[in-house]
Amino acid sequence: MRDIHQVLMRPLITEKSTALREAANQYVFQVAPDANKIEIKQAVEQLFRVKVAKVRTLNIEGKRKRLGRFAGRRPDWKKAVVTLRQGQKIEFFEGA
User: Average of pLDDT values for 19-30?
Assistant: First the structure.
């Protein structure tokens, strides 16, 4: 098994993720592209000491960008939406 810091790369704090956190007790993270739902669940439970009810993952395709005549691409990445059990919350996000 990998280190939890290799699975969870960073939390995503956006307007949409803040609304999900307040309405449905869901937290959003950028995760390693090859991480699976079981690894993500174990990493969140170990790092934040909470109980996870469900994990959903999305593969995000990088946007195509250009600078003058040079075209390029941003990298692909993976996002995980983690739903916690009733009554659980992650204190790390409460200040954001």
Answer: 95
